[in-house]
Specification:
Helices cover about 40% and strands about 10% of the residues. The chain is α/β, with parallel strands linked by helices. The protein has 2 domains: about 5-65 and about 340-445, Alpha-Beta Complex (Aspartate Aminotransferase, domain 1), CATH 3.90.1150.10; about 75-335, 3-Layer(aba) Sandwich (Aspartate Aminotransferase, domain 2). The strands form 4 sheets. The chain has a 7-stranded mixed β-sheet, sandwiched between helices. A 4-stranded antiparallel β-sheet has the order 11-12-15-14.
């Protein structure tokens, strides 16, 4: 189903009388019955309420659901630890020494990279610090970093700390681009213009692929071209993009990128993160990095030499051996992406999100405004909804959803975020979730 057809079908499905949930159930269930990806839902543990029924889970943008295979993989690693102790590092089945390397190929496929450009390691913020240490190289007047106003707080903290680490004032050298007055979304032409304007003083740009609060999806290739035209390094935060939308970091010419694995990658709380470094930087001997044992060439790592010999590729940015128990769930999740294919997942995501959009537009009325871009090409599977008169009723509405078994999240001062994730959400989920939301809105009047 093309995005346009999906949107037309969604609007058609929402054309019945607003009060008639039953009238819509047939259409939603028919879509689910025809969905080739629907069986993937059975491969996840669905959270359940006190009555034992599955919750309506729309919070994959914050924490993805657990693949059922994850428990067995974690328990197998614990079993090897109990059975083998230190010998588990070299056993063919457990292979803890090469654990991170086994994740490179499927991660590279998801971010559109060469395998050698990707490394699984640490957490997002730690990886961001490590790559800023390499790529933020202020010199002369060129010492500013450009981010979006309202960036995820850990990103802002990281870039501000690196500016300060080099002896500069973040108040002067941290540039934050906000949307135009009265708008929620940043126009890419405004970003390009700001890059060009600030170009002579820009050392680095850090930008999200998907903005966490609004769900806006950006054209990374276009942004990287603008940054490079200004002789500025282009780095990207993929926290809300990897596993959500197709990516092409190598072709887009990104300098570096970082991500976490506990949102759309469904690897669990505290899961191992990842990083990308473009191929053109991998042989740059003059590019500094914070070195660690695990960034040493595996062929000679255990010789314990005092001379550092970098591991091939992005793996040379690793500093510590991988946390096996927090990496194991990725071995349950990543095969599901390979099985489904990111193209098919994106196609279903467009259809689910269009259906949610049509229902909200028809049933909610003026009490809800969709902040996320209307253009499907500029969003992932998330919809951010602004609640009118949120100071009086917003949090009450969110708490009412939670009490009714709808799991989403609340962002101050007035945003509810819902993400219909194609791996495990259904059209019926979307219908029931939006109808519950609208029932609660009507009850507040």
């Amino acid at each position: 189903m093309s995005p346009d057809v999906a949107r037309e079908a969604a609007v058609g499905a929402g054309a019945a009388a607003p009060a008639a949930l039953a009238a819509r159930l047939g259409w939603a269930r028919a879509q689910d019955a025809a969905d080739a990806l629907a069986p993937l839902r059975e491969r996840f543990a669905l959270p359940r309420g006190a009555d034992g029924r599955p919750l309506l889970y729309f919070c994959g943008h914050s924490l993805g659901l657990a693949p059922l295979a994850a428990r067995g993989l974690i328990e197998a690693e614990i079993g090897d630890w109990e059975r083998l102790g230190v010998l588990g590092h070299g056993q063919p089945r457990s292979g803890w020494i090469g654990y991170a390397e086994r994740l490179q190929q499927p991660l590279a496929a998801l971010v559109g990279a060469l395998e050698q450009e990707v490394v699984a390691m640490n957490s997002l913020s730690v990886n961001l610090h490590l790559l800023l240490a390499s790529f933020y190289r202020p010199s002369g007047r060129r010492r500013a970093i450009l981010i979006e106003a309202g960036a995820f707080s850990s990103d802002r903290h990281a870039v501000a700390s690196h500016i300060g680490w080099h002896g500069f004032d973040p108040e002067l050298e941290l540039i934050e681009l906000a949307p135009r007055a009265g708008e929620d979304l940043i126009r890419i032409e405004d970003l390009e213009a700001r890059i060009a304007l600030e170009g002579p003083r820009l050392a680095l740009l850090l930008w999200p692929a998907v903005q966490y609060r609004t769900g806006q999806l950006f054209d990374l290739g276009r942004i990287a071209r603008a940054a490079h035209a200004a002789h500025c390094c282009a780095g990207f935060d993929l926290a809300h993009a990897i596993g959500n939308v197709p990516l092409a970091l190598h072709a887009d010419d990104a300098d570096f990128a970082v991500w976490c694995s506990y949102k759309y990658l469904n690897a669990g709380p505290g899961a191992i993160g990842g990083a990308f470094v473009h191929q053109r930087h991998l042989q740059r001997g003059e590019l500094p990095r914070l070195r660690g044992w695990w960034g040493h060439d595996p062929a000679t790592r255990f010789e314990m030499s005092s001379t550092f010999a970098a591991a091939p590729g992005a793996a040379s940015w690793a500093v510590s051996n991988p946390p096996v128990f927090s990496a194991a769930p990725l071995r349950a999740s990543l095969p599901l992406f390979a099985e489904a294919g990111i193209t098919a997942l994106r196609r279903k995501s467009l259809a689910l999100t269009a259906y949610m959009e049509s229902l909200v537009t028809e049933l909610a009325g003026p009490r809800l405004a969709i902040v996320t871009p209307a253009d499907p090409a500029q969003r992932g599977c998330q919809l951010s909804l602004r609640i009118a008169n949120a100071s009086a009723h917003g949090r009450e509405l969110y708490q009412g959803l939670e009490a009714r078994g709808v799991v989403c999240d609340w962002r101050e001062p007035d945003i509810i975020r819902l993400a219909p994730v194609p791996l495990y959400n259904s059209f019926e989920d979307v219908l029931r979730g939006v109808c519950t939301l609208c029932e609660l809105l009507a009850a507040q009047r």
